[in-house]
């Protein structure tokens, strides 16, 4: 997240007045980029991963763990570490060392929304060389080590998606009172957010536009002794400091739900995001479309978020909570009031699963598109006039139905077509599960695609495994011309399904049955299109997909009926891709470790972090079967997570007893192949 | 005959013989029928009469191309690619014809890809399949997991090729290397002992030894060490040595339910061909865009003789 832009942020009523201007300037900037970059060809695949950490601070004496708000100090320490700078690392927003061409470049660190968060990325992008893939895990471990070295003795970077007790009393250090002017939250102080003016403004203007605080209600997990109906006992109905304190008196907190009221509850979550640079715009559009249906599958597979504000939730992932935490829709847009002042009803928050397909691909049937997609027709018209094709123009005209939230007065003086600030203002506050990213102006970067749904994993081994898996899947998609299209509304449904507790082993997801082209002469994207043969007639769309378990999607379907289309499975597709490449045994062995994690996570042998955390809480002696995750449980849980990352030897979650077993197995494995260890 | 660049196997862990045969079938079907049948896996409801083979094949001198062949040249400059070719010598072919066969195979691939050289040529000799069990394991190693064993399930046809034949054939490859047609040579499924016998008799050493192990983490240490010492890269693969058994080929070309109707059935009149098919060699080619790790072109050619 780039933070250099500074200026005078407009309060919402002022920002609202200039929203149209920002949008239309953004569109002009987009057209300038489009004009310059639509023919851009970049030979190499480059990709990058982002790891986000929570910085926790232990109070051993009182057996408490809190979030540390020292992000700024830690970043300052990282930016001023001479040795790190020499190795190419640092903090790009402040200073960093030179990127090394031939040798290793140290990782770099970035601020994030939460002042208790830290983001780390590799010092330079990864390539597709198999050696690069094997460098990912050590690099991630290196990042954690460096981060750790620039913290206090009592602090530690952990990769849990959310802090279990965020919003509970005494959960941050230093301590600040809640109910600040920006967030107006009952639970968290304004100081929880990065103090850079952009962030408090973002939070305040979302609230202001919405007309009340954001409202996050997560279903609570009902245990034996949970009071029922559950009325969140932490809600204070007697606050009278801000007008928004009325929210809870007007029913904002729902029965049987955990109630939260600030952006920090969502944007304070850690994710694992992967960005790819495509060869050209066409390949980027293909990747965007084909990765999209995989989003909900990977969300469920990485599930790691079973606790909110000190209660066990009945959901396993973070997604919808973030969605609600930045939901700036007005009552009219939400459909709660008749449309009078606003332009349209909006079915989704600006943080949501994506709603468009954008590839100019003959396999993209009209039936896959959302017939009710909300589009700003004037903007679309302008884009089409500017030379953009209908499909892509629709995509951006859909993103641009939103208002810009943070507008700096200084930026509205002249339109600078050599910049992308206004475009990015809208583009980067549309948080969908895929993002299609045009090259920044005046850079040698190509068109990029970001894969955003995955939850951060507790260990770097797991984070590396999922990163590498996604990279290999994109290579298989491009090599075999795979087709994962299904109606985009089904993807949205899948995203909901992925939230259910243990969706991985109990739910089914819509997925395409046959990922192959209808005839065999379809190879890499650059193979000339076959000429004269008429296209295969399409059957009904509903026949193309069905409900599958995650295990079937990942490991393949088996069917006694040989005539039936069986989905081959993502892992076998990746294996098939690897079989087509020259891979040495050592590398293949290392890659097999990662693929094995995905395979066994999908078939239930290994647990998701969500399942492990639930199990940890429910078997803790201090747990009283009432859904409450108290301070001591949190302390032990965070300690356990930390311990694992410290001792991590590439093992995966198989629960309490299993963990030890896996460790033994792994050691056995290492013993057998001493040469590779 | 060519199996177009169909890259995908429909089921998990199928070996290359299945990949080859399904690729051949798919390519034949695609050329036979217009419009193609709506499903790719051949569950057509009503059996349609097979189109006469002459409508979709081409006779050139005494060679029949099944189907009619149109090359698909690579789209980017040559240096963007890594081109690997694997040549499967088949059983029951006299060693002296290998020389001709090798050149034939390479030329076909070069023509297909529209290029003048390949980066790596790997040869597979009949009857040779690497078995982790055959290798001397290190003493402190007690392999107990049967899942780690290499499988020889599809390689049962014929005795292993003897070392003299291998060496004679290798000299042909060395010539291709000298001529600059092939930058690197490789062998397939050689264990330590075979390598030790083979290497001293070569001018150009193989730079690659491809081995097929289900669990690639269980390669015997002596082989790893020996290969490192000899600067031979050990690569993984998932191919069969006997990639095209005779019976399989008959089924594909025959006039039965699963055949494409090139060969006549018993007691059948008409223009379909009669005789014994004898597979000669199979070649697999793969062109990978180096910087992107994308397989742009992959396919097979197979050659068989028809004897009256």
From TrEMBL, chain A:
Domain of life: Eukaryota
GO molecular function: ATP binding; glutamate-cysteine ligase activity
Compositionally biased tracts (Low complexity): 518-527
Protein name: Glutamate--cysteine ligase
Region (Disordered): 518-542
GO BP, one annotated term: glutathione biosynthetic process
EC numbers: 6.3.2.2
Uppermost EC category: ligase
Pathway(s) served: Sulfur metabolism; glutathione biosynthesis; glutathione from L-cysteine and L-glutamate: step 1/2
Catalytic activity field: L-cysteine + L-glutamate + ATP = gamma-L-glutamyl-L-cysteine + ADP + phosphate + H(+)
GO cellular component: glutamate-cysteine ligase complex
Keywords noted in UniProt: ATP-binding, Glutathione biosynthesis, Ligase, Nucleotide-binding
Ligase keyword on record: yes
Similarity field: Belongs to the glutamate--cysteine ligase type 3 family.
Gene coding for it: GSH1
Automatic annotation (TrEMBL), chain B:
Renumbered residue ranges of the record's region Disordered: 1-58, 133-155
Pfam family, one: Aldo_ket_red
Keyword Oxidoreductase appears in the UniProt entry: yes
InterPro entries assigned to the protein according to its UniProt record, in alphabetical order: Gclm, NAD(P)_OxRdtase_dom_sf, NADP_OxRdtase_dom
Comp. bias intervals (Polar residues): 18-34
GO cellular component: glutamate-cysteine ligase complex
Similarity section: Belongs to the aldo/keto reductase family. Glutamate--cysteine ligase light chain subfamily.
GO molecular function (one): oxidoreductase activity
Chain ranges of the NADP-dependent oxidoreductase domain: 76-235
GO BP annotations listed: glutathione biosynthetic process
Keyword annotations of the record: Glutathione biosynthesis, Oxidoreductase
Entry protein name: GCS light chain
Subunit annotation: Heterodimer of a catalytic heavy chain and a regulatory light chain.
Pathway: Sulfur metabolism; glutathione biosynthesis; glutathione from L-cysteine and L-glutamate: step 1/2
